[in-house]
Design goal:
single chain; about 35% helix; two-stranded parallel ribbon; globular
């Protein structure tokens, strides 16, 4: 709901498609009623993998000549500024992938040997990833591969060039209870210190 609201705050005309596992659709509808969530959106069933879920979502978009943003529901703290930057970059370049620099030192293990990696060359990828509609739909016509962990890798596989935009350390992905605690703290801080 937070993600949808951020996209609608950016532009009320955005067509939002929520892709969920089939067994969660009724739960989602119940949550919308419970929280009186009335932002216009459609809900469809996802697929076996993220790739297949995105493909199902793309099948609902009739227009080709548009910009399409794919966002993870597990990133509910996305800002309208990030959304705006992604759409602006994709409008100019055809693709936009937000990412952040890493603070930790990094190492890679190869042949049982640990070697350092230059962290200045490594970025953590986030969503929303935004693309020219023709390019993204064409990319999702190809067969699924295990290495397709996000939309950028799918688009790159057909020769698309990926342009990076600035992500945010607050745009965390919630995958564990610890992440929920961090998200709650970030939201509490925004309540106490609104921008």
């Amino acid at each position: 709901m937070r993600s949808i609201k951020a996209f609608k705050d950016y532009d009320k005309r955005i067509n939002v498609i929520v892709v969920l596992p089939s067994d969660q659709k009724i739960y989602w509808m119940d949550l919308c009623k419970k929280y009186t969530f009335n932002e216009l959106h459609s809900v469809i069933s996802g697929g076996e993998t993220r790739f297949h879920s995105v493909k199902n979502g793309l099948a609902q978009i009739e227009e080709d000549h548009c910009l399409i943003a794919v966002h993870d529901g597990a990133r509910p703290l996305v800002s309208t500024e990030m959304i705006s930057e992604a759409f602006s970059c994709a409008k100019k370049n055809g693709t936009a992938v937000p990412c952040i620099k890493l603070n930790d030192s990094l190492r890679i293990i190869e042949n049982n040997t640990s070697n350092p990696i230059d962290r200045n060359k490594i970025f953590a990828v986030q969503t929303p990833q935004c693309f020219n509609g023709v390019l993204l739909k064409k990319a999702y016509e190809q067969a699924f591969e295990e290495r397709f962990t996000d939309d950028a890798t799918v688009v790159e596989n057909i020769g698309g060039k990926i342009f990076l935009t600035e992500g945010s350390n607050e745009n965390i992905k919630i995958t564990s209870r610890k992440d929920l605690v961090i998200a709650e703290a970030l939201l509490q801080n925004k309540t106490i210190n609104p921008e």
